[in-house]
């Protein structure tokens, strides 16, 4: 009786189901997911390497971009390889501690992603609205402090997640109806009433996401106001093109993340496969798009990469 109770209280493993109802398509779904992961890894590693080696790129915008790239690498690597093993190899088992570790990285680095989007928006605001004081306002010390605050926020608010789940007894099924160890999917397996735990998780995600999104929106209102006041129409269109691509990435992140959060709270009738697919999108698409939008479209980074490739070819 003792071993049985122990296994129910602290399961050795969970079983990841994948995308319910789309199991027959797992192999095919894995192909675009793998392609996005490869682009995300290569693109973000390239950005880090270029900024590190090119002294002229040690500017606020590129330093924030490096922080975002590191976040993207951790976020995508904590989910994609394990997900592809599930899709292609049928590896459903995941150890309990490994599940909690994956959960911590996913939720804390998602919060950091949001924080670095806000930091980069603040940099754009200062660069557009106060161009002459850009480097004096955003000094390396202040950039470092902003980065530390974002990291501490992500770790502090989401460290309780795995700790809370570690204390819960699990006497129901060990099957997680998801492609990764999402907090809300795991907490449903507990025997006890977890209403307070669920509310804490949803509250933290909502508060952090909403505050960052509102501050980003306010910053872009001031940015657009300054852009439309530029004397040159060509300069205005160029600034709008840059801001537009940045806003698109931010909208993809916050719209899919918001959909996932509010589905847990209000969307009881939304099919599970749609919810889980959207939850995967907000973890996979931003790390895939960020190197393209912030890297390829950035002239200094693009020129450095092309110059390096030409030298190697020659």
Automatic annotation (TrEMBL):
Protein's cellular compartments: Membrane
Keyword Methyltransferase attached: no
Keywords recorded for this protein, A-Z: G-protein coupled receptor, Membrane, Olfaction, Receptor, Sensory transduction, Transducer, Transmembrane, Transmembrane helix
Alphabetized Pfam families for the sequence: 7tm_4 (PF13853)
Entry protein name: G-protein coupled receptors family 1 profile domain-containing protein
PANTHER family assigned to the protein according to its UniProt record, in alphabetical order: OLFACTORY RECEPTOR 56B1-RELATED, OLFACTORY RECEPTOR FAMILY 52 SUBFAMILY X MEMBER 3
InterPro entries in the cross-refs: GPCR_Rhodpsn, GPCR_Rhodpsn_7TM, Olfact_rcpt, OR51/52/56-like
Lineage: Eukaryota, Metazoa, Chordata, Craniata, Vertebrata
């Amino acid at each position: 009786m003792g071993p049985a109770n122990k296994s129910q209280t602290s399961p050795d493993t969970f079983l990841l189901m994948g995308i319910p109802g789309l199991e027959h398509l797992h192999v095919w779904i894995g192909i675009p997911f793998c392609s996005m992961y490869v682009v995300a890894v290569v693109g973000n590693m390239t950005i880090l390497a270029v900024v590190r080696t090119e002294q002229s790129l040690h500017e606020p915008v590129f330093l924030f971009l490096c922080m975002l790239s590191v976040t993207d690498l951790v976020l995508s690597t904590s989910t994609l390889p394990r997900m592809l093993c599930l899709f292609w190899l049928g590896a459903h088992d995941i150890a309990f501690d490994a599940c909690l570790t994956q959960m911590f990285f996913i939720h804390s680095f998602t919060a950091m992603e949001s924080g670095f989007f806000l930091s980069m928006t603040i940099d754009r605001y200062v660069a557009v609205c106060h161009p002459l004081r850009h480097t004096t306002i955003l000094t390396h010390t202040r950039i470092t402090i902003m980065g530390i605050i974002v990291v501490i926020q992500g770790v502090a608010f989401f460290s309780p997640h795995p700790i809370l789940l570690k204390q819960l007894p699990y006497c129901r099924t060990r099957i997680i109806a998801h492609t990764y160890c999402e907090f809300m999917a795991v907490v449903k397996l507990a025997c006890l009433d977890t209403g307070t735990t669920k509310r804490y998780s949803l509250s933290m995600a909502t508060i952090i996401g909403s505050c960052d999104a509102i501050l980003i929106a306010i910053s872009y209102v001031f940015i657009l106001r300054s852009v439309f006041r530029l004397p040159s129409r060509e300069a205005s269109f160029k600034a709008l093109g840059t801001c537009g691509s940045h806003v698109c990435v931010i909208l993809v992140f916050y719209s899919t993340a918001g959909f996932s959060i509010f589905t847990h709270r209000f969307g009881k009738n939304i099919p599970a496969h749609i919810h889980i697919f959207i939850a995967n999108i907000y973890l996979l698409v931003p790390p895939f798009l960020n190197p393209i939008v912030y890297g390829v479209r950035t002239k200094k980074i693009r020129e450095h990469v092309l110059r390096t490739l030409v030298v190697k070819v020659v």
